[in-house]
UniProtKB/TrEMBL annotation, chain A:
Protein's name according to its UniProt entry: Transketolase
Top-rank taxon, per record: Bacteria
Names of the cofactor(s): thiamine diphosphate
CDD domains per record: TPP_TK
Domain Transketolase N-terminal: 11-268
Organism of derivation: Christiangramia oceanisediminis
TrEMBL record, chain B:
Domain Transketolase-like pyrimidine-binding: 10-175
Origin species: Christiangramia oceanisediminis
One Pfam family linked to the record: Transket_pyr
Keyword DNA-binding found: no
Protein name: Transketolase family protein
UniProt keywords, alphabetically: Thiamine pyrophosphate
Swiss-Prot/TrEMBL cofactor(s): thiamine diphosphate
Lineage: Bacteria, Pseudomonadati, Bacteroidota, Flavobacteriia, Flavobacteriales
SMART domains: Transket_pyr
SUPFAM superfamilies, alphabetized: Thiamin diphosphate-binding fold (THDP-binding), TK C-terminal domain-like
Similarity section: Belongs to the transketolase family.
InterPro entries referenced in this protein's UniProt entry, alphabetically: PDH/Transketolase, THDP-binding, Transketo_C/PFOR_II, Transketolase-like_Pyr-bd, Transketolase_C
Length: 280, 319
């Protein structure tokens, strides 16, 4: 996909995100907007994946979303990558929907391989799937995404230790470094210090994407990460993003972590992200 | 009266280990995980024969449960083993979200359950695990009574698609079920026919129930004994057929009376056929250090306790 096409894609995804959370007056737009470039690049450019969904995913790359609250961006990109009808985004967080507030396999939504939302569990699951790939002699990769605040959960560090200690080198775990969590900045809530040094001390190969809202940087970073797999170390991407990116009044604040825009705010947000691929 | 013979004391955890070894030979999709308790769980033979299919996660049970969930993606059948305490309470949310709600085909294999773990004391003696696991939608809960049944159950759950909690224990206990038994998940095993009282037991209490029935028989009380190895799904038909005949029931388990087998039986009876029931179980307490025998006696979990409960429940039946 050309960069311009990808830009158009992200504009539409951002419209989906704000429309989804606005309609039900709930959900998490901030982190979703910040990770729009990442999801777009992953599903449109990087991963070999089959939108004819099969849970086992043998012979394709897999993705696990650990910070499940950014489900709006996940759902939008899955739908627009052909996993399920785009109109189904209209059912987000409504009763009888497959698009639960946090992603789940329970309703059989194609593209989702694990329930997430209770934080800190996704890397362990991704590691298990990576081990299964090795057992199956499947050379495809496993990707995972984690919030930075989420790293406060101790299970992550169990998984981080395991992955390096067991040379799980078919996994790329990306940390969304937006510096915000629901109660404030990560530094205010619980400072996590130097994450690069921490991952490296645990034995990971770490690289950085300085602007995770720049498509080219995300493409380059993910390609670089891919090139570092298969070398005996798990790969971590520290990806700096801006929470709320693409909607000016939602940027650089934790206020929109888990809050929906009102009618007026929705119109403003939409005006900043032109319709490119057609609203659902 | 049929005589059940102990073919030689063996621990149920060895039944798990030997079952796992057999599975390793016959099912290439079976993989195993352990959190630094390989010796206690008797997993070494499986590991020796299948080093590539074993994952030592270290003392990190949360990561183990998540990894087990992930291993199912790609068609593996993970058996994750640790002590019951660390296999349930410590990782309840991991099991809830990544395994049960996600519908993953993980077998949670829990040794050293109940007070018979013994000398290590209450920090390690979980008496709430059946309750925790049976409350999870979609979770199958099995508690086996001896070596042979544990081995048979280990083999059977590999063929069952869905999450399973398999509970067994540490001490050597009577081994009396047939070596060649067919283990049917959800199907109760009737050990004695009787007319005066139904004794429904699970796990280590099954042998105690047999001993109690023999003693009761000598005193002219005819006890029907049912071995409930699957607490969820519960064989309600077997329970109701028996209690309709005997009119009262004693449930026996190495677990708190809150949340255990007894409550599941009580619900079944309340909905279908109310009848007097007594609970042989721990009475909402923690355990403590001691030998398994001492603890079973102190916490009212042996054949004497069952006999007392039978006398009490039969008095209530007459009123």
């Amino acid at each position: 996909m050309e960069i311009q096409e990808m830009k158009d894609f992200t504009s539409q995804v951002r419209r989906d995100i704000v429309r989804m959370v606005h309609k039900v007056n709930s959900g998490h737009p901030g982190g979703s907007l910040g990770c729009t470039e990442f999801f777009t690049v992953l599903y449109q450019e990087i991963m070999e994946h089959d939108n004819n969904f099969n849970m086992d995913g043998i012979g394709e790359d897999l993705f696990f979303l650990s910070n499940g609250h950014i489900s709006p961006v996940f759902y939008s990109v899955l739908a627009r990558s052909g996993y399920f009808p785009i109109e189904e985004l209209n059912t987000f967080r409504l009763i009888d929907s497959r698009l639960q507030g946090h992603p789940t396999t329970h309703e059989g939504l194609p593209g989702v391989r694990i329930a997430s939302g209770s934080l800190g569990q996704g890397m362990s699951v991704a590691l298990g799937a990576a081990q299964a790939k090795k057992l199956n002699k499947d050379s495809h990769l496993v990707y995972s995404l984690h919030g930075d605040g989420e790293l406060q959960e101790g299970q992550n560090w169990e998984a981080i230790m395991y992955a390096a200690g067991n040379k799980i080198d078919n996994i790329i775990s990306t940390i969304d470094l937006n510096g915000q969590q629901i109660d404030g900045s990560t530094d205010q809530v619980l400072p996590m210090g130097n994450l690069q040094a921490k991952f490296e001390a645990f034995g990971w190969d770490v690289l950085e994407i300085k602007d995770g809202n720049d498509l080219q940087q995300v493409i380059d970073g993910l390609k670089e990460a891919k090139s570092r797999t298969g070398k005996g170390k798990p790969v971590c991407i520290l990806m700096h993003t801006v929470m709320g990116h693409g909607v000016d009044f939602m940027m650089h604040t934790h206020a929109w972590h888990g809050k929906a825009p009102n009618d007026e705010q929705l119109e403003k947000a939409l005006s900043q992200n032109p319709e490119t691929l057609g609203d659902y | 009266m049929k005589k059940y013979t102990d073919s030689g004391n063996k621990d149920t955890r060895s039944g798990f280990g030997d079952g796992l070894t057999e599975l390793g030979r016959k099912n290439p999709n079976v993989v195993a995980l352990c959190a630094d308790l390989v010796g206690s769980l008797k997993m070494q033979d499986f590991i020796d024969e299948n080093p590539d299919r074993f994952f030592q996660v270290g003392i990190a049970e949360a990561n183990m449960m998540g990894m087990a969930a992930g291993l199912t993606i790609g068609g593996k059948i993970p058996f994750a083993g640790t002590f019951a305490n660390f296999a349930t309470g410590r990782v309840y949310d991991q099991i809830r979200q990544s395994i049960a709600y996600s519908g993953k085909n993980v077998k949670i294999c829990a040794s050293h359950s109940g007070v018979t773990l013994g000398e290590d004391g209450a920090t390690h003696q979980i008496l709430e695990d059946i309750g925790l696991m049976k409350m999870l939608p979609g979770m199958t809960v099995i508690c086996t009574c001896d070596y042979n049944q544990t081995k048979a159950a280990t083999l059977a759950i590999a063929d069952h698609d869905g999450p399973v909690y398999l509970r067994f224990g540490r001490p050597k206990v009577a081994n009396f079920t047939p070596e060649d038994q067919e283990f049917q998940i959800g199907k109760a095993v009737k050990l004695y026919e009787g007319t005066d009282v139904t004794i429904i037991a699970t796990g280590h209490l099954v042998w105690e129930a047999i001993e109690a029935a023999v003693e009761l028989n000598e005193k002219g009380i005819s006890a029907e004994v049912i071995n409930i190895h699957t607490i969820k799904p519960l064989d309600e038909e077997a329970i109701l057929n028996s209690v309709k005949k005997t009119g009262c029931v004693v449930t026996a388990e190495e677990h708190n009376f809150l949340g255990g087998l007894g409550e599941s039986v009580a619900r079944t009876l309340a909905l279908n056929h109310p009848a007097p029931q007594e609970f042989v179980a721990t009475q909402d307490t923690f355990g403590e250090s001691g030998t398994p025998e001492q603890l079973m006696e102190k916490y009212g979990l042996n054949s004497d306790a069952i006999i007392n409960a039978v006398r009490n429940v039969m008095k209530r039946k007459k009123q």
